[in-house]
Structures are given as C-alpha cells and as structure tokens.
Design goal:
The chain is mostly helical. It has 9 helices and no strands. The protein is extended.
Length: 230
C-alpha cells in the first residue's frame, strides 16, 4: 500500500474546514436575520402582485374608456347639445388621465361651436393644450382650432401669441394658412403673401386647396397701396 504523506491530505482537510465554517456562518446569519429575509421576500412578492394587478387595471380602464368614447361619438350625431355636454363632461371626470379625455374635450369644443358658445369652446380648447403635452398631435389640433376661433373673434394678436408657442409644426399646411390670415388681418401683407406662398407649395397635390390659396393671394392688397406695416 503506497504511503500518503500529510502534505497530500492537507488540501482536502482545509477545504472541508472552510465548508463547515461557511455552513455555521449561514446558520448564524439565518438565525439572526431570518425573519428579515422572509419579510423582504414577501414584500417583493406583494409588490410584483400589486404591479401586475395595477397593469391589469390600467388595461381594463383603457378598454372601458375606448368603448365609452365610441359610444359618445355615435351619440354626438343624434343627441342634443345639452345631452352631449352632460355626457362629455361625465366622461372627462371619469377618465381624467386617459388620452380619450382630451379627445372628448375636442368633441365638446365642437359641440359648443355648433351651439354658438365660442367662449366655452375657447376655454375647453385651452384645457386640451394645457393637458396634452404627452400628445403633440392632439396639442397641435387644439392649437389650430383655438387660433381659428380667435381669428373669427377678430383677435389676431392673441392668435399670434398662441401660434408662437410652436405647438404646430411648420410642415403642417395649417401653420402657414393661420399665419397668413393673422398677418393679413394685421395689414402685414408682405408676410401674409409669404405664408400663403409657402402654403401653396405644400398644397401642390391638392388642387382644390391650391385654388383656394391662390384666390387668397390674389385678394391681398398690394403692399405699397395698402400701406403695409411690415
């Protein structure tokens, strides 16, 4: 039988010693902090379950809001102004944080315009602008509609101030049409001509709109004869 030296046995004994030491250390750690570990695990489990439930709630709410909004759109063509007013306001109150709430405000503003209540329409459109920073498209639509209402109310300076917030992209043809109307009302015909010209370039694939813009250009007074202030 071959002789085994103590130096050959030493590594195995050292490893066994370390393993036993680690086991005793873990036992002591569990005895001292076991309840804390269990609590942490339970807390994580509760958070995960809660988050899953919350996500499910948001999904259900989004579906409910979508169905309610579609119903509102259908009712818009058949119900009275006061009925739509009441229904839309109830919707907005119910789904405050939903994107559909701002879409409903746009519908509500149109409802007020149809009823001839332009001040209420302006107020609602301003609410859309203030509460739709997460949706640039909705914000731009509200800005355009409010600007048009302001121009109809002969308030080009306020419309200009609103448009200067740059909530409408320059690539949007309505941007140039509104600026053209603003400057025309302010007798700044050179600037009005510039924006009608830009709008005409944007309308090259829409002959009907191009004809309308061309007519607006022809109707502009000559800058010198009109005493252009620009």
């Amino acid at each position: 039988m071959p002789f085994q030296s103590k130096t050959e046995e030493q590594p195995g004994m050292t490893e066994l010693f370390h393993e036993q030491h680690q086991v005793e250390f873990l036992k002591g750690l569990w005895k001292k902090h076991g309840k804390l570990f269990i609590g942490a695990i339970l807390l994580i489990a509760v958070i995960l379950v809660g988050w899953s439930s919350w996500k499910g709630h948001l999904k259900d709410e989004k579906i409910e809001a979508s169905i309610a909004y579609q119903t509102l759109l259908q009712d818009y063509t058949t119900k009275s102004v006061s009925e739509i007013d009441e229904q839309a306001l109830a919707f907005i109150n119910e789904y405050k944080t939903s994107t559909y709430s701002n879409l409903t405000r746009l519908l509500l503003a149109r409802n007020y315009i149809n009823a001839g209540d332009f001040q209420k329409a302006q107020k609602v459109l301003q609410q859309v602008i203030d509460n739709s920073s997460d949706s640039k498209e909705i914000q731009a639509i509200a800005t355009i509609r409010l600007s048009r209402l302001l121009l109809d109310a002969n308030k080009p300076a306020i419309a200009l101030k609103l448009m200067s917030k740059k909530l409408v992209a320059k690539t949007d043809i309505r941007y140039n049409l509104i600026y053209a109307k603003i400057y025309s009302m302010q007798h700044k015909y050179t600037l009005a001509e510039k924006h009608y010209g830009l709008a005409l370039l944007q309308a090259k694939n829409n002959q009907q709109l191009a004809d309308f813009i061309t007519a607006q250009l022809h109707n502009l007074p000559a800058p010198q004869a009109a005493g252009d202030t620009e």
